[in-house]
Amino acid sequence: MRSTLIQAVTLTLLTALLAGCGFQLRGTGSNAVSVPDDWKLMYLATGNPNSELSRAVVSQFAANGVQWTERDAANFVLVLGGEEFRERNLSLTAEARAAEFELTMRTHFTVRQVNNAEVIPQTNASVVKQMENDPRNVVGKAEEVRLLKNEMRTELARQIMRRIGFFAAGSQASGAQTAAPQDAASQDPASQDTGG
Fold first, then answer.
1. The pTM is what?
2. Span 31-86+104-126+135-175: which CATH code?
3. pLDDT for residue 7 is more than 90
């Protein structure tokens, strides 16, 4: 009975310690990005709207409160480039076969107003992952690459969401700062003409 109690207390203390240092299980963290209301109506312009990357972006933005609309109802247009994927050998086995791969996925995006004025110029986003290779397990390698590519698309979508959210929040804050002095001046009695 006493050893069970000690194990329970130890487990609780370890959990609290890990939580205190910021540890979290993969996939359990919050990826929420705060986006100003006027950025929540967007239109997606892409060469391939049914691609896996496009679907990942649509899903990620929708999870953060963005509503995808027709172009004429949107406030902003997200122009999404195509997905570029590269795989290169990092190291070789004694038999001169690939022992480790580096996987790179890239895309680019631009944000425009509906009148086509550029708000965020073309920006690149990329994700790099490494994987070990077992040359005797070709099927397993193909499946692992497929799973990693899905993770990379999700991470690209998160990067795009974070960058747009950061820009939108910054532009809203700078707009509020420039508006504040004007509002203060209009309410300052010393700045008003007394007429006499």
1. 0.69
2. 3.30.160.150
3. no
